[in-house]
Amino acid sequence: MALDQSFVGRSYPPTAPYEVGREKIREFAEAVGDPNPAYLDPEAAKALGHCDLIAPPTFVFAITFKAARDVIADPRLGLDYSRVVHGDQKFAYSRPVRAGDRLAVTSTIEAIKSLAGNDIIDVRGEVHDEAGEHVVTAWTKLVARAAEEA
Amino acid sequence: MAAKIGYDEVEVGTELPAGTFPVTRATLVRYAGASGDFNPIHWNEKFAKEVGLPDVIAHGMFTMAEAIRVVTDWAGDPGAVVEYGVRFTKPVVVPNDDEGAVVEVSAKVGAKLDDRRVRVDLTAMSAGQKVLGMSRAVVRLG
After folding, report:
1. Which of B17, B16, B11 minimizes the C-alpha distance to B118?
2. Of A10, A32, A114, A115, which has the fewest beta carbons less than 10 angstroms from its beta carbon?
3. In sequence order, what DSSP letters do the residues of B53-108 get, joined into one string?
């Protein structure tokens, strides 16, 4: 099913802030099996010049993807979320995410395409801290696979 | 930022120490909880097969998180990563046994950029298949 092209370029209001907690960073680092002390020990993070624990580079995806999902769940867009797979993912950082951050995401639908029956949607999430400073931008390409012929 | 590798120490083609990352069903359950991604294709074999997958597959973002460890371990400071992008080309299939799957990651310096930055090109393989494509990180070195 073709998606509604009028959604291209649409931006959504910033999300309510997500507060990054030390224990959540540690839980994530443990889940990916990464013992890097910058994720676990505030003193080690400070020795590297950070003011608190920093998060692994992909940690922020949980925050940006939740925002993206809220955007693409709009029934007027026409995306079959049950058939969605992750195509590409990219991050560009102004600084690492760190404990104590209160992060808001502003999502924009950058592109909508149809290719061989697959619907492809590109969402950009701009992440800012409480001071309004840019932290990271996440680009997420989602592919809704064509339904099999009955 | 305090990368322990100096920009002047590396050349195009410099290889980073490779990494081997095991992934079992238990790993995926733990990652689901930590990341909040509870899509059943990552833990429910019946569901995964119903939607046309060979078996339960790893979260793409899990594989992405493992691959960058080769870069962050090398650089010393994970905050030195200024860009990171991948394409998910093939799923990492995780059988329900004691061994699970293995993701093997290799990386080398692909280009030296300005401002003491380098581009690192990553390769991630599982079961003989390339699971990440166009996998690149830009890192600011010391």
Report:
1. B11
2. A115
3. -SS-B--HHHHHHHHHHHHHHHHS-GGGEEEEEEEE-S--B--SSSS-EEEEEEEE
Q: What amino acid is encoded at A83 in this protein?
A: R
Domain chopping of chain B, boundaries:
7-22+58-140
Q: Which distant-in-sequence residues (6+ apart) come within 8 Å of B69 by Cβ?
A: A32, A34, A36, B19, B21, B105
Per-residue model confidence as pLDDT tens digits over A131-150: 999 999 999 999 988 776 54
- Partners of B35 on chain A (C-beta within 8 Å) are 28, 31, 61-62
Kindly state whether A46 is in contact with chain B, defined as any CB-CB distance less than 8 angstroms.
no
Give the pLDDT band (50/70/90) at residue B3.
Answer: confident
Overall CATH class of domain A5-21+55-144:
alpha beta
Q: Looking at the domain that runs over B7-22+58-140, which CATH code has it been given? A: 3.10.129.10
Closest CA to B105 of B92, B90, B123: B123
Whether ipTM tops 0.90, in short, is yes
